[in-house]
């Protein structure tokens, strides 16, 4: 689980997240459609778009259906990189 950043605003039912400062190649910009989770590893949504400065970009997160995007404002969000949690993987295994 890598820290994505802090949720700042909700615009058209999408979360705007300011990412952590990117230093060197250790910290990478997340890929599109990566799962975004909260501190309890509850899925919040997926990465929709990335924009802004290279050293500290903003990330648009499209929340899951039924998720209240405004409830996450001011909270830290993370990228879930746990293997086997991808929906495609689950479809293949079952």
UniProtKB/TrEMBL annotation:
Cite the Pfam families for this sequence. Gar1
Q: Which residues constitute the signal peptide according to the record?
A: none
GO BP annotations listed:
pseudouridine synthesis; ribosome biogenesis
Q: What is this protein called?
A: Gar1-like small nucleolar rnp
